[in-house]
Design a protein that fits this description.
Blueprint: H1 12-44, H2 49-97, H3 101-107, H4 109-151, H5 157-200, H6 202-207, H7 211-263, H8 269-311, E1 333-340, E2 350-357, E3 362-367, H9 373-379, E4 388-393, E5 396-397, H10 403-408, E6 410-413, E7 422-423, H11 424-429, H12 437-446, H13 450-455, E8 463-464, H14 473-485, E9 491-495, H15 503-516, E10 521-525, H16 529-532, E11 537-542, E12 545-550, H17 552-558, H18 560-569, H19 572-575
Parallel strand pairs: 3-10, 3-11, 6-9, 9-10
Antiparallel strand pairs: 1-2, 1-4, 4-5, 7-8, 11-12
Helix pairs in contact: 1-2, 1-4, 1-8, 2-4, 4-5, 4-8, 5-7, 5-8, 7-8, 12-14, 17-18
Length: 576
Protein backbone atom coordinates (compact mmCIF):
# COMPACT_ATOMS: atom_id res chain seq x y z
CA UNK A 1 0.00 0.00 0.00
CA UNK A 2 2.95 2.30 0.63
CA UNK A 3 3.64 2.33 -3.12
CA UNK A 4 0.27 4.00 -3.70
CA UNK A 5 1.02 6.74 -1.20
CA UNK A 6 3.26 8.41 -3.81
CA UNK A 7 0.04 9.68 -5.38
CA UNK A 8 -0.60 11.74 -2.22
CA UNK A 9 2.25 14.10 -3.14
CA UNK A 10 -0.07 16.85 -4.54
CA UNK A 11 -1.85 16.91 -1.17
CA UNK A 12 1.21 17.22 1.08
CA UNK A 13 0.06 20.62 2.42
CA UNK A 14 -3.43 19.23 3.14
CA UNK A 15 -1.96 16.24 5.01
CA UNK A 16 0.27 18.51 7.09
CA UNK A 17 -2.76 20.64 7.92
CA UNK A 18 -4.84 17.60 8.91
CA UNK A 19 -2.09 16.23 11.17
CA UNK A 20 -1.65 19.62 12.86
CA UNK A 21 -5.37 20.08 13.41
CA UNK A 22 -5.81 16.52 14.72
CA UNK A 23 -2.90 17.14 17.10
CA UNK A 24 -4.59 20.31 18.42
CA UNK A 25 -7.96 18.54 18.67
CA UNK A 26 -6.39 15.69 20.66
CA UNK A 27 -4.73 18.18 23.01
CA UNK A 28 -8.13 19.78 23.51
CA UNK A 29 -9.75 16.41 24.28
CA UNK A 30 -7.00 15.56 26.79
CA UNK A 31 -7.20 18.92 28.52
CA UNK A 32 -11.00 19.05 28.93
CA UNK A 33 -11.30 16.38 31.72
CA UNK A 34 -8.65 18.24 33.75
CA UNK A 35 -10.62 21.50 33.43
CA UNK A 36 -13.77 19.66 34.49
CA UNK A 37 -11.95 18.24 37.52
CA UNK A 38 -10.79 21.74 38.49
CA UNK A 39 -14.34 23.11 38.17
CA UNK A 40 -15.66 20.36 40.46
CA UNK A 41 -12.86 20.37 43.02
CA UNK A 42 -12.06 24.10 43.14
CA UNK A 43 -15.40 25.57 42.15
CA UNK A 44 -18.41 23.36 42.95
CA UNK A 45 -16.96 21.77 46.11
CA UNK A 46 -15.85 25.17 47.48
CA UNK A 47 -18.91 27.09 46.20
CA UNK A 48 -16.74 29.50 44.19
CA UNK A 49 -19.16 30.67 41.45
CA UNK A 50 -16.62 33.06 39.96
CA UNK A 51 -14.09 30.28 39.49
CA UNK A 52 -16.80 28.08 37.95
CA UNK A 53 -17.76 30.81 35.44
CA UNK A 54 -14.17 31.70 34.61
CA UNK A 55 -12.90 28.13 34.19
CA UNK A 56 -16.17 27.02 32.55
CA UNK A 57 -15.85 29.80 29.96
CA UNK A 58 -12.27 28.76 29.24
CA UNK A 59 -13.45 25.13 28.99
CA UNK A 60 -16.09 26.10 26.40
CA UNK A 61 -13.43 27.99 24.44
CA UNK A 62 -11.13 24.92 24.43
CA UNK A 63 -14.04 22.65 23.45
CA UNK A 64 -15.06 25.05 20.66
CA UNK A 65 -11.49 25.14 19.38
CA UNK A 66 -11.41 21.33 19.37
CA UNK A 67 -14.68 21.16 17.42
CA UNK A 68 -13.40 23.71 14.87
CA UNK A 69 -10.17 21.74 14.42
CA UNK A 70 -12.17 18.53 13.99
CA UNK A 71 -14.44 20.05 11.32
CA UNK A 72 -11.58 21.53 9.29
CA UNK A 73 -9.52 18.34 9.64
CA UNK A 74 -12.48 16.27 8.47
CA UNK A 75 -12.94 18.53 5.43
CA UNK A 76 -9.25 18.44 4.47
CA UNK A 77 -8.91 14.68 5.02
CA UNK A 78 -12.03 14.02 2.92
CA UNK A 79 -10.75 16.28 0.15
CA UNK A 80 -7.34 14.60 0.26
CA UNK A 81 -8.68 11.04 0.21
CA UNK A 82 -11.18 11.76 -2.58
CA UNK A 83 -8.44 13.47 -4.61
CA UNK A 84 -6.14 10.53 -3.96
CA UNK A 85 -8.86 8.14 -5.16
CA UNK A 86 -9.37 10.22 -8.32
CA UNK A 87 -5.64 10.11 -9.11
CA UNK A 88 -5.38 6.34 -8.51
CA UNK A 89 -8.46 5.65 -10.67
CA UNK A 90 -6.99 7.83 -13.41
CA UNK A 91 -3.63 6.03 -13.20
CA UNK A 92 -5.31 2.61 -13.32
CA UNK A 93 -7.50 3.64 -16.25
CA UNK A 94 -4.55 5.08 -18.18
CA UNK A 95 -2.51 1.94 -17.57
CA UNK A 96 -5.39 -0.30 -18.66
CA UNK A 97 -5.76 1.78 -21.82
CA UNK A 98 -2.15 0.98 -22.68
CA UNK A 99 -2.66 -2.78 -22.26
CA UNK A 100 -2.47 -5.04 -25.25
CA UNK A 101 -5.16 -7.65 -25.73
CA UNK A 102 -2.85 -10.18 -24.05
CA UNK A 103 -2.99 -8.27 -20.75
CA UNK A 104 -6.79 -8.07 -20.96
CA UNK A 105 -6.92 -11.82 -21.57
CA UNK A 106 -4.61 -12.45 -18.61
CA UNK A 107 -6.19 -10.19 -15.95
CA UNK A 108 -9.84 -10.20 -17.00
CA UNK A 109 -12.36 -7.43 -17.58
CA UNK A 110 -14.54 -8.07 -14.51
CA UNK A 111 -11.66 -7.84 -12.05
CA UNK A 112 -10.33 -4.69 -13.78
CA UNK A 113 -13.69 -3.02 -13.12
CA UNK A 114 -13.59 -4.08 -9.45
CA UNK A 115 -10.03 -2.85 -9.05
CA UNK A 116 -10.87 0.53 -10.57
CA UNK A 117 -13.94 1.05 -8.37
CA UNK A 118 -14.28 -1.02 -5.20
CA UNK A 119 -10.57 -1.54 -4.52
CA UNK A 120 -9.76 2.15 -4.94
CA UNK A 121 -12.63 3.02 -2.58
CA UNK A 122 -11.21 0.67 0.07
CA UNK A 123 -7.79 2.30 -0.13
CA UNK A 124 -9.05 5.87 -0.10
CA UNK A 125 -11.24 5.17 2.95
CA UNK A 126 -8.18 3.87 4.81
CA UNK A 127 -6.21 6.96 3.75
CA UNK A 128 -8.91 9.22 5.20
CA UNK A 129 -9.11 7.18 8.42
CA UNK A 130 -5.34 7.00 8.84
CA UNK A 131 -4.92 10.76 8.59
CA UNK A 132 -7.33 11.17 11.47
CA UNK A 133 -6.38 8.19 13.63
CA UNK A 134 -2.64 7.70 13.16
CA UNK A 135 -2.04 10.87 15.23
CA UNK A 136 -5.06 10.97 17.51
CA UNK A 137 -5.20 7.29 18.62
CA UNK A 138 -1.56 6.86 19.79
CA UNK A 139 -1.47 10.36 21.20
CA UNK A 140 -4.78 9.85 23.00
CA UNK A 141 -3.59 6.53 24.46
CA UNK A 142 -0.21 7.82 25.63
CA UNK A 143 -1.59 11.18 26.73
CA UNK A 144 -4.48 9.50 28.54
CA UNK A 145 -2.09 7.28 30.48
CA UNK A 146 0.07 10.28 31.47
CA UNK A 147 -2.95 12.36 32.52
CA UNK A 148 -4.49 9.41 34.40
CA UNK A 149 -1.21 8.92 36.29
CA UNK A 150 -1.20 12.62 37.16
CA UNK A 151 -4.62 12.22 38.76
CA UNK A 152 -3.95 9.02 40.73
CA UNK A 153 -1.12 6.54 40.26
CA UNK A 154 -2.64 3.79 42.41
CA UNK A 155 -5.96 3.76 40.53
CA UNK A 156 -4.04 3.30 37.27
CA UNK A 157 -3.51 -0.34 38.30
CA UNK A 158 -7.12 -0.96 37.13
CA UNK A 159 -6.03 -0.01 33.61
CA UNK A 160 -3.01 -2.32 33.86
CA UNK A 161 -5.50 -5.19 34.10
CA UNK A 162 -8.20 -3.85 31.73
CA UNK A 163 -6.08 -2.75 28.73
CA UNK A 164 -4.19 -6.07 28.20
CA UNK A 165 -7.54 -7.87 28.50
CA UNK A 166 -9.01 -5.53 25.89
CA UNK A 167 -6.01 -5.99 23.54
CA UNK A 168 -6.13 -9.80 23.93
CA UNK A 169 -9.82 -9.89 23.03
CA UNK A 170 -9.29 -7.61 20.02
CA UNK A 171 -6.40 -9.78 18.82
CA UNK A 172 -8.65 -12.86 19.04
CA UNK A 173 -11.36 -11.13 17.01
CA UNK A 174 -8.84 -9.89 14.44
CA UNK A 175 -7.40 -13.38 13.96
CA UNK A 176 -10.89 -14.64 13.11
CA UNK A 177 -12.04 -11.67 11.05
CA UNK A 178 -9.02 -10.67 8.93
CA UNK A 179 -9.05 -13.76 6.67
CA UNK A 180 -12.72 -13.08 5.96
CA UNK A 181 -12.06 -9.42 5.16
CA UNK A 182 -9.37 -10.47 2.68
CA UNK A 183 -11.82 -12.76 0.88
CA UNK A 184 -14.34 -9.98 0.26
CA UNK A 185 -12.59 -8.52 -2.81
CA UNK A 186 -12.27 -11.92 -4.51
CA UNK A 187 -15.96 -12.65 -3.97
CA UNK A 188 -16.95 -9.20 -5.29
CA UNK A 189 -14.89 -10.04 -8.42
CA UNK A 190 -17.00 -13.17 -8.85
CA UNK A 191 -20.26 -11.21 -8.51
CA UNK A 192 -19.09 -8.71 -11.15
CA UNK A 193 -18.03 -11.49 -13.52
CA UNK A 194 -21.39 -13.29 -13.35
CA UNK A 195 -23.36 -10.04 -13.56
CA UNK A 196 -21.37 -8.78 -16.55
CA UNK A 197 -21.82 -12.07 -18.42
CA UNK A 198 -25.54 -12.03 -17.69
CA UNK A 199 -26.09 -8.45 -18.86
CA UNK A 200 -23.99 -8.71 -22.02
CA UNK A 201 -25.38 -12.14 -22.94
CA UNK A 202 -29.02 -11.50 -22.09
CA UNK A 203 -30.25 -12.27 -25.62
CA UNK A 204 -28.48 -15.64 -25.74
CA UNK A 205 -29.64 -16.49 -22.21
CA UNK A 206 -33.29 -15.83 -23.09
CA UNK A 207 -33.03 -17.51 -26.49
CA UNK A 208 -31.86 -20.75 -24.86
CA UNK A 209 -34.21 -20.47 -21.86
CA UNK A 210 -31.24 -20.35 -19.48
CA UNK A 211 -32.63 -17.53 -17.34
CA UNK A 212 -33.14 -19.83 -14.37
CA UNK A 213 -29.64 -21.28 -14.73
CA UNK A 214 -28.08 -17.79 -14.77
CA UNK A 215 -30.22 -16.79 -11.80
CA UNK A 216 -28.83 -19.77 -9.91
CA UNK A 217 -25.25 -18.83 -10.90
CA UNK A 218 -25.76 -15.28 -9.65
CA UNK A 219 -27.53 -16.53 -6.54
CA UNK A 220 -24.61 -18.83 -5.74
CA UNK A 221 -22.08 -16.00 -6.07
CA UNK A 222 -24.37 -13.63 -4.16
CA UNK A 223 -24.96 -16.12 -1.33
CA UNK A 224 -21.22 -16.79 -1.13
CA UNK A 225 -20.48 -13.08 -0.67
CA UNK A 226 -23.44 -12.66 1.72
CA UNK A 227 -22.35 -15.58 3.91
CA UNK A 228 -18.86 -14.11 4.09
CA UNK A 229 -20.30 -10.76 5.22
CA UNK A 230 -22.61 -12.53 7.71
CA UNK A 231 -19.60 -14.25 9.28
CA UNK A 232 -17.84 -10.88 9.52
CA UNK A 233 -20.90 -9.19 11.00
CA UNK A 234 -21.37 -11.99 13.53
CA UNK A 235 -17.83 -11.44 14.72
CA UNK A 236 -18.33 -7.67 14.83
CA UNK A 237 -21.71 -8.11 16.57
CA UNK A 238 -20.02 -10.24 19.21
CA UNK A 239 -17.11 -7.82 19.48
CA UNK A 240 -18.98 -4.60 20.29
CA UNK A 241 -21.05 -5.85 23.27
CA UNK A 242 -17.97 -7.58 24.69
CA UNK A 243 -15.88 -4.44 24.32
CA UNK A 244 -18.60 -2.37 25.95
CA UNK A 245 -18.80 -4.94 28.76
CA UNK A 246 -15.04 -4.70 29.36
CA UNK A 247 -15.22 -0.89 29.29
CA UNK A 248 -18.23 -0.75 31.62
CA UNK A 249 -16.64 -3.20 34.07
CA UNK A 250 -13.49 -1.05 33.96
CA UNK A 251 -15.59 2.05 34.72
CA UNK A 252 -17.28 0.28 37.62
CA UNK A 253 -13.91 -0.85 38.98
CA UNK A 254 -12.54 2.70 38.76
CA UNK A 255 -15.64 4.05 40.53
CA UNK A 256 -15.46 1.32 43.21
CA UNK A 257 -11.80 1.83 44.05
CA UNK A 258 -12.00 5.56 43.40
CA UNK A 259 -14.78 6.08 45.94
CA UNK A 260 -12.80 4.06 48.47
CA UNK A 261 -9.81 6.38 47.88
CA UNK A 262 -12.05 9.45 48.17
CA UNK A 263 -13.44 8.07 51.45
CA UNK A 264 -9.85 7.68 52.69
CA UNK A 265 -9.10 11.24 51.65
CA UNK A 266 -6.54 10.14 49.09
CA UNK A 267 -8.43 11.44 46.03
CA UNK A 268 -10.89 14.19 45.11
CA UNK A 269 -14.23 13.79 43.33
CA UNK A 270 -13.25 15.85 40.27
CA UNK A 271 -10.05 13.83 39.85
CA UNK A 272 -12.12 10.61 39.88
CA UNK A 273 -14.45 11.89 37.17
CA UNK A 274 -11.46 13.04 35.11
CA UNK A 275 -9.77 9.67 35.66
CA UNK A 276 -12.86 7.84 34.32
CA UNK A 277 -12.84 10.03 31.22
CA UNK A 278 -9.13 9.41 30.65
CA UNK A 279 -9.70 5.68 31.06
CA UNK A 280 -12.44 5.80 28.41
CA UNK A 281 -10.16 7.83 26.10
CA UNK A 282 -7.40 5.24 26.49
CA UNK A 283 -9.76 2.37 25.74
CA UNK A 284 -11.46 4.12 22.83
CA UNK A 285 -8.07 4.98 21.33
CA UNK A 286 -7.12 1.31 21.66
CA UNK A 287 -10.38 0.46 19.87
CA UNK A 288 -9.61 3.00 17.12
CA UNK A 289 -6.17 1.47 16.57
CA UNK A 290 -7.86 -1.92 16.36
CA UNK A 291 -10.24 -0.65 13.71
CA UNK A 292 -7.19 0.49 11.77
CA UNK A 293 -5.61 -2.94 12.11
CA UNK A 294 -8.82 -4.47 10.70
CA UNK A 295 -9.19 -1.97 7.85
CA UNK A 296 -5.55 -1.92 6.76
CA UNK A 297 -5.23 -5.64 5.79
CA UNK A 298 -8.30 -5.41 3.56
CA UNK A 299 -6.94 -2.21 2.05
CA UNK A 300 -3.57 -3.92 1.58
CA UNK A 301 -5.27 -6.65 -0.45
CA UNK A 302 -7.01 -3.97 -2.53
CA UNK A 303 -3.74 -2.02 -2.90
CA UNK A 304 -1.88 -5.14 -4.02
CA UNK A 305 -4.52 -5.73 -6.70
CA UNK A 306 -4.25 -2.11 -7.84
CA UNK A 307 -0.45 -2.27 -7.87
CA UNK A 308 -0.64 -5.44 -9.94
CA UNK A 309 -2.39 -3.41 -12.64
CA UNK A 310 -0.05 -0.41 -12.31
CA UNK A 311 3.05 -2.65 -12.32
CA UNK A 312 1.95 -4.65 -15.35
CA UNK A 313 4.17 -3.55 -18.18
CA UNK A 314 2.22 -3.62 -21.46
CA UNK A 315 3.66 -6.21 -23.79
CA UNK A 316 3.20 -3.84 -26.72
CA UNK A 317 4.94 -0.49 -26.44
CA UNK A 318 6.60 2.04 -28.70
CA UNK A 319 10.13 1.15 -29.70
CA UNK A 320 13.00 2.89 -27.89
CA UNK A 321 14.05 4.44 -31.22
CA UNK A 322 10.91 4.55 -33.37
CA UNK A 323 11.16 4.86 -37.12
CA UNK A 324 9.08 7.10 -39.35
CA UNK A 325 7.22 5.48 -42.25
CA UNK A 326 8.18 6.13 -45.86
CA UNK A 327 5.79 8.81 -47.13
CA UNK A 328 6.43 7.67 -50.70
CA UNK A 329 4.94 4.24 -49.93
CA UNK A 330 1.61 5.09 -48.36
CA UNK A 331 -0.78 2.20 -47.83
CA UNK A 332 1.66 -0.67 -48.43
CA UNK A 333 1.35 -3.66 -46.09
CA UNK A 334 3.63 -6.66 -46.24
CA UNK A 335 3.59 -9.89 -44.21
CA UNK A 336 6.99 -11.60 -44.19
CA UNK A 337 6.93 -15.19 -42.96
CA UNK A 338 4.73 -14.29 -39.95
CA UNK A 339 4.09 -16.86 -37.21
CA UNK A 340 1.92 -16.13 -34.17
CA UNK A 341 0.70 -18.15 -31.18
CA UNK A 342 -1.70 -17.20 -28.40
CA UNK A 343 -0.40 -17.50 -24.86
CA UNK A 344 -0.66 -21.09 -23.65
CA UNK A 345 -1.68 -22.46 -27.05
CA UNK A 346 -0.12 -25.73 -28.18
CA UNK A 347 -0.17 -24.84 -31.89
CA UNK A 348 0.47 -21.51 -33.65
CA UNK A 349 -2.67 -19.65 -34.76
CA UNK A 350 -0.76 -18.51 -37.87
CA UNK A 351 2.28 -20.09 -39.51
CA UNK A 352 4.61 -18.69 -42.20
CA UNK A 353 2.19 -16.07 -43.54
CA UNK A 354 3.57 -13.98 -46.42
CA UNK A 355 1.67 -11.64 -48.75
CA UNK A 356 1.59 -7.99 -49.84
CA UNK A 357 -1.21 -5.40 -49.93
CA UNK A 358 -0.97 -2.39 -52.25
CA UNK A 359 -2.91 0.90 -52.50
CA UNK A 360 -5.83 0.74 -54.89
CA UNK A 361 -6.14 -3.03 -54.49
CA UNK A 362 -8.56 -5.12 -52.48
CA UNK A 363 -7.11 -8.10 -50.64
CA UNK A 364 -9.59 -10.62 -49.29
CA UNK A 365 -9.04 -13.33 -46.71
CA UNK A 366 -11.33 -16.34 -46.60
CA UNK A 367 -11.25 -19.62 -44.77
CA UNK A 368 -13.15 -21.91 -42.46
CA UNK A 369 -14.01 -20.99 -38.89
CA UNK A 370 -10.87 -20.99 -36.73
CA UNK A 371 -8.54 -20.68 -39.74
CA UNK A 372 -6.92 -17.55 -38.24
CA UNK A 373 -8.58 -14.78 -40.26
CA UNK A 374 -9.34 -12.40 -37.36
CA UNK A 375 -5.98 -13.20 -35.78
CA UNK A 376 -4.28 -12.06 -39.00
CA UNK A 377 -6.01 -8.69 -39.12
CA UNK A 378 -5.38 -8.09 -35.40
CA UNK A 379 -1.64 -8.20 -36.06
CA UNK A 380 -1.67 -5.23 -38.46
CA UNK A 381 -2.74 -2.56 -35.90
CA UNK A 382 -0.45 -4.40 -33.47
CA UNK A 383 -3.08 -5.61 -31.04
CA UNK A 384 -0.71 -8.56 -30.68
CA UNK A 385 2.96 -8.94 -31.61
CA UNK A 386 4.18 -11.66 -33.94
CA UNK A 387 6.32 -14.51 -32.61
CA UNK A 388 8.56 -14.51 -35.68
CA UNK A 389 8.72 -12.84 -39.04
CA UNK A 390 7.62 -9.22 -39.52
CA UNK A 391 4.76 -7.05 -40.69
CA UNK A 392 5.73 -3.91 -42.61
CA UNK A 393 3.51 -0.88 -43.09
CA UNK A 394 4.85 1.70 -45.53
CA UNK A 395 8.21 -0.06 -45.43
CA UNK A 396 8.59 0.00 -41.62
CA UNK A 397 8.17 -2.92 -39.20
CA UNK A 398 5.06 -2.20 -37.11
CA UNK A 399 7.11 -2.95 -33.96
CA UNK A 400 9.42 -0.05 -34.82
CA UNK A 401 6.68 2.44 -35.70
CA UNK A 402 4.99 4.59 -33.01
CA UNK A 403 1.62 3.03 -32.14
CA UNK A 404 -0.22 6.33 -32.62
CA UNK A 405 1.29 6.76 -36.08
CA UNK A 406 0.53 3.16 -37.05
CA UNK A 407 -3.08 3.21 -35.92
CA UNK A 408 -3.74 6.63 -37.46
CA UNK A 409 -3.11 4.99 -40.83
CA UNK A 410 -5.79 2.34 -40.30
CA UNK A 411 -9.57 2.40 -40.56
CA UNK A 412 -10.62 -0.71 -38.61
CA UNK A 413 -14.06 -2.31 -38.57
CA UNK A 414 -13.97 -5.21 -36.05
CA UNK A 415 -15.81 -8.48 -36.35
CA UNK A 416 -17.83 -7.69 -33.24
CA UNK A 417 -19.35 -4.29 -33.95
CA UNK A 418 -19.07 -1.83 -31.07
CA UNK A 419 -21.11 1.37 -30.82
CA UNK A 420 -20.99 3.84 -27.96
CA UNK A 421 -23.79 5.66 -26.18
CA UNK A 422 -24.47 8.97 -27.91
CA UNK A 423 -25.86 10.03 -31.26
CA UNK A 424 -25.20 8.36 -34.61
CA UNK A 425 -23.17 11.44 -35.59
CA UNK A 426 -21.07 11.09 -32.41
CA UNK A 427 -20.34 7.46 -33.25
CA UNK A 428 -19.24 8.32 -36.78
CA UNK A 429 -17.13 11.23 -35.46
CA UNK A 430 -15.35 8.71 -33.24
CA UNK A 431 -13.23 8.08 -36.34
CA UNK A 432 -12.51 11.79 -36.87
CA UNK A 433 -13.38 14.32 -34.17
CA UNK A 434 -13.51 17.36 -36.46
CA UNK A 435 -15.56 15.70 -39.21
CA UNK A 436 -18.08 18.11 -40.74
CA UNK A 437 -21.77 17.33 -41.19
CA UNK A 438 -21.15 17.01 -44.94
CA UNK A 439 -18.38 14.46 -44.38
CA UNK A 440 -20.59 12.46 -42.01
CA UNK A 441 -23.45 12.46 -44.49
CA UNK A 442 -21.14 11.42 -47.33
CA UNK A 443 -19.59 8.43 -45.51
CA UNK A 444 -23.02 7.34 -44.30
CA UNK A 445 -24.17 7.33 -47.93
CA UNK A 446 -21.13 5.30 -49.00
CA UNK A 447 -21.74 2.84 -46.13
CA UNK A 448 -25.37 2.45 -47.29
CA UNK A 449 -26.53 3.83 -43.94
CA UNK A 450 -28.05 7.12 -45.08
CA UNK A 451 -31.46 5.69 -45.96
CA UNK A 452 -32.17 4.11 -42.59
CA UNK A 453 -30.64 7.07 -40.69
CA UNK A 454 -32.92 9.55 -42.47
CA UNK A 455 -35.92 7.34 -41.72
CA UNK A 456 -35.32 7.89 -37.99
CA UNK A 457 -37.11 10.80 -36.32
CA UNK A 458 -33.90 12.49 -35.19
CA UNK A 459 -31.75 11.42 -38.14
CA UNK A 460 -28.06 11.70 -37.32
CA UNK A 461 -29.03 12.94 -33.83
CA UNK A 462 -30.74 9.64 -33.04
CA UNK A 463 -29.47 8.42 -29.66
CA UNK A 464 -27.68 5.08 -29.68
CA UNK A 465 -28.26 3.01 -26.53
CA UNK A 466 -25.31 1.53 -24.68
CA UNK A 467 -23.86 -1.23 -26.83
CA UNK A 468 -26.06 -0.21 -29.79
CA UNK A 469 -28.95 -2.35 -28.59
CA UNK A 470 -31.58 -0.13 -30.24
CA UNK A 471 -30.32 -0.70 -33.80
CA UNK A 472 -30.08 -3.90 -35.82
CA UNK A 473 -26.89 -5.84 -36.52
CA UNK A 474 -26.75 -4.63 -40.12
CA UNK A 475 -27.32 -1.03 -39.07
CA UNK A 476 -24.54 -1.29 -36.50
CA UNK A 477 -22.19 -2.65 -39.14
CA UNK A 478 -22.95 0.18 -41.55
CA UNK A 479 -22.44 2.86 -38.88
CA UNK A 480 -19.17 1.15 -37.93
CA UNK A 481 -18.06 1.16 -41.58
CA UNK A 482 -18.93 4.88 -41.86
CA UNK A 483 -16.83 5.50 -38.75
CA UNK A 484 -13.83 3.92 -40.48
CA UNK A 485 -14.45 5.71 -43.79
CA UNK A 486 -14.56 9.18 -42.22
CA UNK A 487 -10.89 8.84 -41.23
CA UNK A 488 -9.81 8.56 -44.87
CA UNK A 489 -7.00 6.20 -43.80
CA UNK A 490 -4.30 4.62 -45.91
CA UNK A 491 -5.38 1.09 -44.93
CA UNK A 492 -8.90 -0.25 -44.50
CA UNK A 493 -9.52 -3.44 -42.53
CA UNK A 494 -12.99 -4.99 -42.66
CA UNK A 495 -13.09 -8.03 -40.36
CA UNK A 496 -16.20 -9.91 -41.47
CA UNK A 497 -17.97 -6.54 -41.50
CA UNK A 498 -20.59 -7.41 -44.11
CA UNK A 499 -21.96 -10.57 -42.49
CA UNK A 500 -25.19 -8.94 -41.29
CA UNK A 501 -25.93 -7.32 -44.66
CA UNK A 502 -28.20 -8.78 -47.31
CA UNK A 503 -26.59 -9.64 -50.68
CA UNK A 504 -28.01 -6.57 -52.41
CA UNK A 505 -26.73 -4.12 -49.77
CA UNK A 506 -23.42 -5.99 -49.64
CA UNK A 507 -22.93 -5.60 -53.41
CA UNK A 508 -23.90 -1.90 -53.37
CA UNK A 509 -21.59 -1.24 -50.45
CA UNK A 510 -18.59 -2.93 -52.05
CA UNK A 511 -19.18 -1.01 -55.30
CA UNK A 512 -19.30 2.29 -53.37
CA UNK A 513 -16.20 1.32 -51.39
CA UNK A 514 -14.25 0.73 -54.61
CA UNK A 515 -14.62 4.40 -55.51
CA UNK A 516 -14.07 5.69 -51.97
CA UNK A 517 -10.96 3.61 -51.26
CA UNK A 518 -9.21 3.75 -54.63
CA UNK A 519 -6.12 5.40 -53.10
CA UNK A 520 -5.96 3.05 -50.11
CA UNK A 521 -5.24 -0.61 -49.61
CA UNK A 522 -8.24 -2.65 -48.46
CA UNK A 523 -8.30 -5.90 -46.51
CA UNK A 524 -11.61 -7.73 -46.33
CA UNK A 525 -12.15 -10.78 -44.14
CA UNK A 526 -15.32 -12.64 -45.04
CA UNK A 527 -17.09 -15.97 -44.86
CA UNK A 528 -19.16 -15.40 -48.02
CA UNK A 529 -17.62 -16.09 -51.40
CA UNK A 530 -19.82 -13.43 -52.97
CA UNK A 531 -18.11 -10.78 -50.82
CA UNK A 532 -14.56 -11.69 -51.85
CA UNK A 533 -14.80 -13.00 -55.41
CA UNK A 534 -14.22 -9.58 -56.99
CA UNK A 535 -11.10 -8.88 -54.90
CA UNK A 536 -7.77 -8.26 -56.66
CA UNK A 537 -6.14 -10.86 -54.42
CA UNK A 538 -7.77 -13.61 -52.38
CA UNK A 539 -5.85 -15.35 -49.60
CA UNK A 540 -7.19 -18.73 -48.51
CA UNK A 541 -6.37 -19.74 -44.94
CA UNK A 542 -6.64 -23.23 -43.54
CA UNK A 543 -5.50 -24.11 -40.01
CA UNK A 544 -3.38 -20.96 -39.80
CA UNK A 545 -1.56 -21.47 -43.10
CA UNK A 546 -1.96 -19.95 -46.55
CA UNK A 547 -3.14 -22.72 -48.88
CA UNK A 548 -4.06 -20.50 -51.80
CA UNK A 549 -3.39 -17.03 -53.14
CA UNK A 550 -4.68 -15.37 -56.31
CA UNK A 551 -7.85 -14.19 -58.02
CA UNK A 552 -11.18 -15.98 -57.87
CA UNK A 553 -10.62 -17.74 -61.20
CA UNK A 554 -7.02 -18.69 -60.39
CA UNK A 555 -8.03 -20.22 -57.07
CA UNK A 556 -10.84 -22.20 -58.65
CA UNK A 557 -8.22 -23.82 -60.84
CA UNK A 558 -5.47 -24.48 -58.32
CA UNK A 559 -6.84 -24.42 -54.73
CA UNK A 560 -8.86 -27.37 -53.48
CA UNK A 561 -9.85 -25.67 -50.20
CA UNK A 562 -11.21 -22.64 -52.06
CA UNK A 563 -13.15 -24.86 -54.46
CA UNK A 564 -14.76 -26.61 -51.49
CA UNK A 565 -15.77 -23.27 -49.96
CA UNK A 566 -17.19 -22.04 -53.27
CA UNK A 567 -19.07 -25.23 -54.01
CA UNK A 568 -20.63 -25.17 -50.54
CA UNK A 569 -22.05 -21.68 -51.15
CA UNK A 570 -22.68 -21.35 -54.89
CA UNK A 571 -24.45 -23.50 -57.40
CA UNK A 572 -22.66 -24.98 -60.40
CA UNK A 573 -24.10 -22.30 -62.73
CA UNK A 574 -22.95 -19.49 -60.41
CA UNK A 575 -19.44 -20.95 -60.26
CA UNK A 576 -19.27 -21.20 -64.03
Amino acid sequence: MLKLFRFLKPYTAHIAGVLTLVFLQTLSDLYLPTLMADIIDKGVMLGDTGYIMKTGGFMLLVAGGGVLCAVIASYLSSKTSMGFGRIVREKVFNRVESFSLSEFDKIGTATLITRTTNDVTQVQMVVMTMMRMMVSAPMMAIGGVIMALSKDKTLTLVLVVAIPLLIAFIALVASKGLPLFKLVQVKIDRINLVLREKLTGIRVIRAFNRTEHERERFEAANVDLTENYIKINRIMAFMMPTLMFIMNVTSLAILWFGIIRIDLGQMEMGSLIAFIQYAMQIMFSTLMMTVMFIMVPRAQVAAARINEVLDTVPGIQDAAQPKSPDNKRRGFVEFRDVTFSYSGAEQPALSNISFTMKPGEVTAVIGSTGAGKSTLVNLIPRFYDVDSGSILVDGVDVREMPLETLRSKIGFVPQKTVLFSGTIADNIRFGKEDATDEEIRHVAEVAQALEFIESLNDGFNHEIAQGGTNVSGGQKQRISIARALVRKPEIYIFDDSFSALDFKTDARLRAALRKETRDSSVLIVAQRVGTVMDADQIIVLDKGRIVGKGTHKELLDNCEVYREIVSSQLSGEEIA
